[in-house]
Amino acid sequence: MSESKEMQKGELAPTEWIWNEDENPPFHRTQYAPMLVKHFDCLFADGETGRVFVPLCGKTLDMIFLADKGLEVVGLEFSEIGVEGFFKDNNLTYKKMDVVNQPLVQYKCNEKNITIYRGDMFNLNPDVCGQFDGIWDRGSYVAINIPTQQKYADIILQLMKPEAKILMETFTYDTSRYGGPPHCITLENLQSTFGSKCEIKVVDTMTMLAHPVFNAGDMIMTLPYCLLSMK
Ligand SMILES: C[S@@+](CC[C@H](N)C(=O)[O-])C[C@H]1O[C@@H](n2cnc3c(N)ncnc32)[C@H](O)[C@@H]1O
Q: Is the minimum distance from the CB of 17 to ligand 1 under 6 angstroms?
């Protein structure tokens, strides 16, 4: 556990995210994220090359979408089942090696321009993975425990090149009915964690019924998709 204090309600240590070998976790999607496909051009012009980071990537297929756009894709995920499941599910092979002097393992895909680091996000820094032109954040910032959001934002900001942008899926909902994760993220929250370095705007929204695992009955969640651009 990267955080020394005891976990509070609504908080999960990296080891507490449930990953089983034989079934997909509830957050995993078997298609590309529609809002990434729709708003990809907020991050990169079509045909543009560059480096894109997918924090807390799980085994998202979005990494395939981004690599097939001609980008160099770097993911980071704590779960070994998640990382190795990504390659297995997609019939991809990899070379695996420890990162020198860091508690991270690098998986470099042989067939596509995708590298995934396995380990705790809080151990990542630009000396390990360099900086990025774009970041696709689905289920990442919202998964971070509230007391560590600023620490997470500071790491992400260090990983961004001067002109970089983040496209981020956020959630807003009635917090008296559910306490996260995914955490409820208001624009004020984003302003306080990223606002000193980034302009923030909402580019789209969608709504969905809360997943049954949240035990929130028929609660509707609103998902604002935010674009954070380095000032
Ligand atoms: C909500 S899931 C999102 C996964 C992925 N982005 C997707 O769209 O399917 C959050 C992921 O973060 C991982 N995770 C949680 N805390 C982490 C940490 N501190 N470092 C690395 N991964 C972490 C979990 O194992 C889980 O796979």
A: yes
